Fold this protein.
Amino acid sequence: MDNKLKQLTAKKRKLDTYRPLPPELVKNLDEWFKIELTYTSNAIEGNTLTRAETALVVEKGLTVQGKSLTEHLEATNHAEALDYVKTLVSKKRQDITEQDILDIHRLILNKIEADNVGRYRTQHARLTQTDVVLPNPVKVPWLMEEFVEWLAGDNHDHIVKIGADAHYKLVSIHPFSDGNGRTSRLLMNLTLMQEGYPPAIIRKEDRLVYINSLEKAQKGMGLDNFYGLIYGAVDRSLDIYLKALQPEGEQIFYTTDEVAKLLRVDPESVRRYVRRGTLRAVKLGGKFIRIDRADLDRFIEKLKTKQ
């Protein structure tokens, strides 16, 4: 694990050499990460909105037929909670308060569970399909005080490990009736972003591995699997930034509409080219794609010869 943390440190230092980052790139990446974090974090909890549907709900304010009001609110709430977390990035980890955590939770459950937003649970809780014993609700307030004291403490561990530990400790206290996972993941990402790291995305396809790694740790069998998952997520996020900043050729982010204008076709044609593999591109959620500029120029020339 120490070697992996050293690799993350090296990539972070490489990212720092590009700072300040180009504003347009930062904007594009921020928008993509907002959708991806919202989609994946909610999907882990059972939300059935697809990535593209999440983008429609968050960016356009549209409703998706066949999806529940709760699923729509989970998308908009998470996006708003992430925006709030970004306002806390200028703080130091040591200055994160119990109220900050309660406010993150309040935004996550806004209009979904009015009686429970920003409040600790008063009922006993049990995780489904597991025999993990959660703390008695009477203990939750002082466990949270203890947690915030730990978070503010003099900790010389690597920040990615601190972020992972914060996630694990909070989700294991399970202070809320609902929204514990989403709150814990946002808190982890707050600690990462405060130190200049991009947020970690736990992919939907890693859901079972993620849940099992938490359960294994909660049963006293160690955190190695959980650390490995989180470190891998941070690594992927660093790669997204670095590949955008030091591309092969001139690899940059475009919106689908921008590519459509360059190719003089409609946006759906662009999506079709990418799906078929005739235009080499990496899809980044519902809005952005990453293309090597040289490949794009060659594709434009190819289209011209066919006209």
Notes: Residues 2-245 form a domain with the Fic-like fold fold (CATH 1.10.3290.10).
